[in-house]
Amino acid sequence: MARIRHTKNELKAQRDALERYLRYLPTLQLKKQQLQIVVRRVENEVEDLRQKIAQALRAAESWVALFSEEFDPQKYLAVERVVIAEGNVAGVAIPVFKSVVFRKEVPDLFVTPSWYDDALALLESLTELQIRRLLLEEQLRRLREELRITTQRVNLFEKVKIPECRENIRIIRIFLGDQQTAEIARAKVAKRKSTEKVRSA
User: Fold this and answer.
1) What's the pTM?
2) Which domains are present in the chain?
3) Regions of the chain where pLDDT drops below 50
4) Residue-wise DSSP of 135-161
5) How many angstroms separate the CA atoms of 147 and 100, rounded?
6) Per-residue pLDDT tens digits for 22-77
7) Distance of alpha carbon 128 from its chain centroid, rounded?
8) Which helix (H) or strand (E) element contains residue 192?
9) Which of these, 141, 149, 178, 159, lies nearest to 38 by C-alpha position?
10) CB neighbours of 153 closer than 8 A, spacing ≥ 6?
11) Average per-residue pLDDT in the chain?
12) Cα angle vertex 114, ends 113, 118, to 5°?
């Protein structure tokens, strides 16, 4: 604990600091709660997307062996761009998925096997799901980092700063009280001595 001056000015500074901490703490606690709720929601969304990806892959297992044939999906399907918006949760900037724009070429029905259409539809769906998952994981990373920092601040205020200020105020008040008592005692002694001098004179 840092050394404090035992003065009225220091007492006022400590009281002001305590008031600031007590005023700011509920805001931090609310932010922490909000972040915890959003982190849980995004974790559920990520898990939901992982299950959808696994489900789509399981559904395709019966014919996915056909991919071993000469099949170059990049000739027919490629990501042109990913449209991302900027979101904000409790002051944290997060990427928000809007859409994926694909460049598509329709396979020649006379040259390519019939399963190409299904394969390309699956790849398009899986690509979009994977992009959504990656963006949600980035959201989660940013939100968890902000939650960690906010939790540290809440703990700092609750466990260090507020108790420290209260203890400093208590110590200064005791010191100032003792000083005032000593001054009164000195004044009484001085008055008694001056009264005795007057009597003896």
Assistant:
1) 0.76
2) 8-190 (1.10.287.3240)
3) none
4) HHHHHHHHHHHHHHHHHHHHHIIIIII
5) 30
6) 999 999 999 999 999 999 999 999 999 999 999 888 877 776 666 666 667 777 78
7) 27
8) helix 162-200
9) 141
10) 28
11) 86
12) 115
Instruction: Name the 3-class secondary structure at 38.
Output: helix
Which pLDDT belongs to residue 74?
A: 76
Sequence length of the chain is 201
Helix (H) or strand (E) holding 86: strand 77-89
SS3 content of the chain, % helix, strand, coil (to 5): 75, 15, 15
What's the token pair of residue 157? 């205020």
Q: What are phi and psi of 4, to 5 degrees?
A: -115, 150
Contact residues for 80 (Cβ-Cβ < 8 A; gap 6+):
101, 102, 103
Determine the Cα–Cα distance for residues 86 and 93; give it in Å rounded to an integer: 7
